[in-house]
Design a protein that fits this description.
By secondary structure, the chain is mainly alpha-helical. It is 77% helix and 0% strand. The longest helix is centred in the N-terminal third of the chain and has 44 residues, at 2-45.
Length: 223
């Protein structure tokens, strides 16, 4: 029990550090490029025939430099994208840790509790009949996702399990095989989907940072 608690804490630490490391680096890039670009445009406006009025400086700046101002505003908007990218990267790191440690079985107790709530006391044959008759599989997914949120306090593990259940398709389950245990198939498929995202990549993050500096370069050469 103590080992499981320690491992969960390790995953939380890994996810948190990975998330905040990217966020802080991205915010530094955002603040530096936005501030430098903004000051460059303000300074350049002093040498134009039109003046930037203090009460509506952003509107005036947009009239003088519409493209550059729009690109600057998009740098600010990219902050929301930054948080999304950082969250995805952190989950990939956690998934990678779980796969490399061959700790997938640590997810099974949570999955068992989730499936108990999603399927309740329904028997295997009844489950097959339900889905073969066209019962909406998405309803089961919704119940499973809601159950995941209540069964684990580890936000990174919770995110991975939610991702796995949302990727699950009714086509992934061979209902025609009378020997299968649907619960086991679902658990295996969910873990397989988690394994698919267990390759951390900072590609999107670096593209976002590159955008910041390209905007600054455009302002430098076109102001």
């Amino acid at each position: 029990m103590l080992d499981k608690i320690k491992y969960a804490a390790t995953l939380s630490m890994l996810g948190g550090v990975s998330f905040f490391k990217l966020v802080l680096l991205g915010l530094c890039s955002l603040v530096v490029t936005f501030s430098a670009g903004f000051l460059l445009l303000i300074n350049a406006s002093k040498y134009t025939s039109q003046k930037v009025e203090s009460d509506f400086f952003l509107v005036s700046l947009f009239k003088l430099y519409p493209l550059q101002t729009l690109l600057l505003l998009l740098i600010i908007a990219s902050g929301f994208v930054l948080f999304s990218i950082s969250g995805k990267y952190a989950m990939q790191k956690v998934a990678n840790k779980i796969v490399n440690d061959k700790a997938e079985t640590a997810l099974y107790p949570v999955l068992d509790k989730v499936l108990n709530k999603a399927f309740g006391g329904i028997g295997e044959e009844e489950k097959r009949n339900m889905f073969q008759k066209g019962v909406d599989f998405s309803l089961v997914q919704v119940k499973a996702v809601d159950a995941v949120k209540n069964e684990t306090e580890n936000k990174w593990v919770r995110g991975l399990l939610v991702y796995g259940f949302e990727k699950l398709s009714i086509d992934d389950i061979p209902f025609n095989d009378p020997n299968i245990d649907i619960r086991d198939i679902v658990k295996i498929k969910v873990v397989d989907f988690i394994k698919e995202m267990a390759e951390p990549s900072k590609g999107l993050f670096w593209y976002l940072v590159l955008y910041h500096w390209i905007v600054l370069g455009i302002i430098i050469f076109t102001r």
